Amino acid sequence: MKKVRNLEHGADSLVTVRRSQINPLYTLIGAIVLSGLLTWAPWILPAADVSILQNFFILVIMATMWNLLAGYAGMVSIGQQGFIGLGAYAVLYFAIKGVNPFVAIPLAIIVCAIIALPVTYLLLRLRGGYFSVATWVVANTAMLLILSFTLLGGGTGAALPGLVNLSPDQLNHDRYLATWFVALVVVVATYLLLRSRLGLVLSSVRDNEVASRSSGTKVTSTRRMIFIVAAAGCGAAGAVLAISQPFIQPGNEFSLSWTAEMLFVSMIGGLGTIEGPILGSIIFFALQQWLQNWGAWYLIIFGAVAVSIALWQPRGLWGMVRDKFHFELLPVGYRVNDATQDRVPWEGDRPSWKRRFARKKDAPETVAP
């Protein structure tokens, strides 16, 4: 927190500049406690709840990366499922070659980042809807290339080797912990990235690209970096998705439904916020568990919720909370609050008739020659 002196139309006042309304120490303590509880979840909760938490973390990873790409960088992608599939099949490839699947997770992330680099030179030439459609084309191209490799099972897929030596309980625990730690690293890394100078550059590029370029910002380099980071994050989601299921199939790993879930979660939670994808994932799984026996009404209610929030709360639920209560759990910007109660009014605060009266009263008298 900083206190600075503000000169506003001649009035000298103190303003307080801070990131959050709550003490950062309380946020840190709460995060440590929550992290400890989630780490011990496999030994505390039933296996069914642990499985739900594992799928929840996978969705949080995907939604956080899509939000970073669309909510902060302004690049709306409908092809991130391509990097999810590439991450899953990278784990499968390394496992076939004898690498432990858990050790293959960081290798899969690196592979997705390397693949994303040359792709950016094609995609970043496009804008708007053309960019979105091009990302979908890239995802389909990646799936067709994977289908052509018989080593990876072709169109039927393949079982993930390297996990048969673990007992079922140990395997479930290791799967959950790997997914939880990857989700934690993704959220913390995104938070630190957005608090850096790059986060400010992202906001300026998203809001006004022309003005950002005119101020000297390297727009293309910034977008390329964010696209690679988002691709690596989605590759991480695909990697932990691969170890969470016994069989890897292209139709599942490259499914367009992943992007639909990312979009839904980010939209209802709040684009352009770190907390939004987390809140959206909680709502998504709560609705999923509540509506799982409702048949076709499941999709109808999901669509109604998405349309309602898009119409009446376009900033998402967390955006509503932030705007109304000025509250953020993971703030990446600054807020300026007036530290004085009795501020001296300046001329613009007066009604127009009072300003005219004051000018007449203060005007010097003129004497005719």
In terms of quaternary structure, the protein is: single chain
Q: What is the spatial order of strands in the main beta sheet?
A: 1-2-5
End-to-end gap: 61 Å
Number of strands: 5
> What coarse outline follows from CA principal-axis ratios?
globular
Describe this structure in words.
The chain is built from 16 helices and 5 strands. With 369 residues, it is mainly alpha-helical. The protein has one domain: ABC transporter involved in vitamin B12 uptake, BtuC (Orthogonal Bundle). A hairpin with a 2-residue loop joins β1 and β2.
What topology does this entry show?
Elements (H helix, E strand, L loop, with lengths): L1 E7 L2 E8 L5 H16 L1 H4 L2 H26 L8 H16 L7 H20 L4 H20 L10 E2 L8 H28 L1 H11 L1 H6 L4 H25 L3 E2 L1 H4 L3 H13 L5 H17 L5 H16 L3 H10 L9 E4 L13 H11 L7
Antiparallel strand pairs: 1-2, 2-5, 3-4
Summarize the structure.
By secondary structure, the protein is mainly alpha-helical.
Index terms:
single chain; 369 residues; two-stranded antiparallel ribbon; 5 strands
